[in-house]
């Protein structure tokens, strides 16, 4: 069951957990510079943090992974089981760091920022606005008490004739787990799926590999000019827009390093607008949990093109920013809980299928 941590009046109270005194100092300076945030304490390891949480009752934690006495993931797992609260991970921008960060998001962390490998003080300062915004969003996020992992319900065996059907999915904050939930409910022969998740370049390939382990479909890290085939899902690389281009009777992935769209690259709007143009009424799309409004205009373009459009409901979204913006624009035909979205996408692809 999802629960929302009520935000108390006044400043957002933050506890910083990191074994580096320099990082604790820099994070304190960055967050304290925002008038909406108060850093109420800092801890060098999870055992100290555990006591400070009891004493200080913070609204949000920032959490490192590699720490003495107890690693961050073990601490996070215990926290989400016993006292769920919003956590923003501050993780290393490496492939190993990406795997651990994805584990943290699976355990219930709301979001993450990447810690530079060199010149930490100046590097983190460069992420100041992003960190401040993510902490403020986390304070309003819904967090879920960690439950034992259960196998997804079996999907009905249906033979899809899908050469002319396409599904598009977009997400941001909370999306790595939301996309997993949707994909693990898809059959192996589902229509092709194209996916844009806001994620850094070092994280998108491990994210695609993780999705592949949880899906009956084949999930790949998209490459330029890659053919889009039924039974496959294509994840936009971090730092590149993913668009769909019609090529004869088929579609292909097109990657671009053109300007960010409303600060995002990859952009959900870029993907959705290309799908509206290339597939039109042969497409179905879902906009999942996420901060901001990326994807809202693209989903409206899809609806106007005759595509079936869905947004995740507020109750199951970590942050109802992107889906909420799409709903406000009138872009959504359906507003559904996360666990119902896969079936709705599949049902919409069967309508008028060849």
From TrEMBL:
GO CC, alphabetical: cytoplasm
Its EC number(s): 3.1.1.61, 3.5.1.44
Xref: SUPFAM superfamilies: CheY-like, Methylesterase CheB, C-terminal domain
Domain (Response regulatory): residue spans on this chain: 13-130
PTM annotation, UniProt: Phosphorylated by CheA. Phosphorylation of the N-terminal regulatory domain activates the methylesterase activity.
GO molecular function, one term: phosphorelay response regulator activity
Limits of the CheB-type methylesterase domain: 160-352
UniProt keyword annotations, A-Z: Chemotaxis, Cytoplasm, Hydrolase, Phosphoprotein
Listed GO biological process terms: chemotaxis
Catalyzed chemical reaction(s): L-glutaminyl-[protein] + H2O = L-glutamyl-[protein] + NH4(+); [protein]-L-glutamate 5-O-methyl ester + H2O = L-glutamyl-[protein] + methanol + H(+)
Pfam family for this entry, one: Response_reg
Residues bearing the modification 4-aspartylphosphate: 64
NCBIfam families for this protein: PRK00742.1, PRK12555.1
Protein's job: Involved in chemotaxis. Part of a chemotaxis signal transduction system that modulates chemotaxis in response to various stimuli. Catalyzes the demethylation of specific methylglutamate residues introduced into the chemoreceptors (methyl-accepting chemotaxis proteins or MCP) by CheR. Also mediates the irreversible deamidation of specific glutamine residues to glutamic acid.
UniProt protein name: Protein-glutamate methylesterase/protein-glutamine glutaminase
């Amino acid at each position: 069951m999802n629960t929302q941590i009520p935000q108390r009046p006044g400043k957002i109270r933050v506890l910083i957990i990191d074994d580096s005194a320099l990082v604790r100092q820099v994070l304190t300076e960055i967050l304290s510079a925002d008038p909406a945030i108060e850093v109420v304490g800092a801890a060098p390891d999870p055992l100290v943090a555990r006591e400070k949480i009891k004493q200080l009752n913070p609204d949000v934690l920032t959490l490192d992974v590699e720490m003495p006495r107890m690693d961050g993931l073990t601490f996070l797992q215990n926290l989400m089981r016993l006292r769920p609260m919003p956590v923003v991970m501050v993780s290393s921008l490496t492939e190993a760091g990406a795997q651990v960060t994805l584990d943290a998001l699976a355990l219930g962390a709301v979001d993450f920022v990447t810690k530079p490998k060199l010149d930490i003080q100046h590097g983190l300062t460069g992420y100041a606005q992003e960190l401040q915004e993510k902490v403020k969003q986390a304070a309003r996020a819904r967090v879920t008490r960690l439950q034992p992992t259960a196998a997804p319900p079996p999907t009905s065996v249906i033979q899809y004739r899908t050469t002319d059907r396409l599904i598009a999915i977009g997400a941001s904050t909370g999306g790595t787990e939301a996309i997993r939930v949707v994909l693990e409910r898809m059959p192996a022969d589902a229509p092709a799926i194209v996916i844009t998740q806001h994620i850094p370049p070092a994280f998108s390939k491990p994210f695609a590999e993780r999705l592949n382990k949880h899906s009956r479909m084949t999930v790949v890290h998209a490459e330029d000019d890659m053919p889009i085939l039924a039974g496959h899902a294509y994840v936009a690389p971090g730092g590149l827009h993913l668009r769909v281009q019609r090529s004869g009777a088929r579609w292909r992935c097109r990657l671009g390093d053109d300007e960010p769209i409303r600060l995002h690259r990859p952009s959900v709007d870029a993907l959705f607008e290309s799908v509206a143009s290339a597939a039109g009424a042969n497409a179905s799309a879902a906009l999942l949990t996420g901060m901001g409004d990326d994807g809202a205009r693209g989903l409206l373009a899809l609806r106007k093109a005759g595509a079936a459009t869905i947004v995740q409901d507020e109750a199951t979204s970590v942050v109802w920013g992107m889906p909420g913006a799409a709903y406000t624009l009138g872009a959504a035909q359906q507003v559904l809980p996360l666990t119902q979205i896969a079936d709705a996408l599949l049902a919409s692809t069967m309508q008028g299928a060849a």
